[in-house]
């Protein structure tokens, strides 16, 4: 199981968070570089997709293939270039 999101630190700032469940415990996984992540889906153990936004609000897609994340710009509809929370 995978969970994604954003965490604030007590000292200020924060960043993208990826958590993985290994059947008996959670671990912090390698996080892709979008500013924040909002959803994740697993098509297989080595094909994970997450969505998020970069610092300018552009929607980003991140794909995990078992060894690291690859970022892809998300397709946009005419007039909808940014994602607003």
Question: Describe it for me?
Answer:
This protein is an all-beta fold and 85 residues long. The chain has one domain (2-73). 0% of the residues lie in helices and 53% in strands. The protein contains no helices and seven strands. The protein has strands at 2-8, 14-21, 26-28, 36-44, 47-53, 59-64, 69-73. The strands form two sheets. The protein has a four-stranded antiparallel beta sheet with strand order 4-5-6-7, with no helix packed on it. Strand 1 (2-8) and strand 2 form a beta hairpin.
Specify the overall morphology.
Answer: flat
Please give the count of helices.
Answer: 0
Oligomer category: single chain
Estimate the strand proportion: over 45%
- Sheet with most strands: 4 strands, antiparallel
Strand order of the largest sheet: 4-5-6-7
Number of domains: 1
Distance between the termini: 25 Å
Concise account of the structure shown:
The chain is mainly beta. It has strands spanning 2-8, 14-21, 26-28, 36-44, 47-53, 59-64, 69-73.
Sequence-ordered SSE layout with sheet pairings:
Layout: E1 2-8, E2 14-21, E3 26-28, E4 36-44, E5 47-53, E6 59-64, E7 69-73
Antiparallel strand pairs: 1-2, 2-3, 4-5, 5-6, 6-7
Keywords:
85 residues, single chain, mainly beta, 4-stranded antiparallel beta sheet, flat
């Amino acid at each position: 199981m995978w969970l994604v999101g954003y965490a604030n630190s007590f000292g200020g700032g924060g960043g993208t968070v990826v958590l993985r469940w290994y059947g008996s415990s959670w671990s912090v996984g390698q996080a892709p570089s979008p500013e924040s992540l909002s959803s994740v889906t697993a098509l297989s153990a080595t094909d994970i997709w997450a969505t998020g936004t970069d610092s300018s609000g552009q929607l980003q897609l991140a794909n995990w293939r078992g060894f690291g994340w690859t970022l892809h710009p998300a397709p946009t509809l005419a007039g909808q270039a940014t994602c607003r929370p």
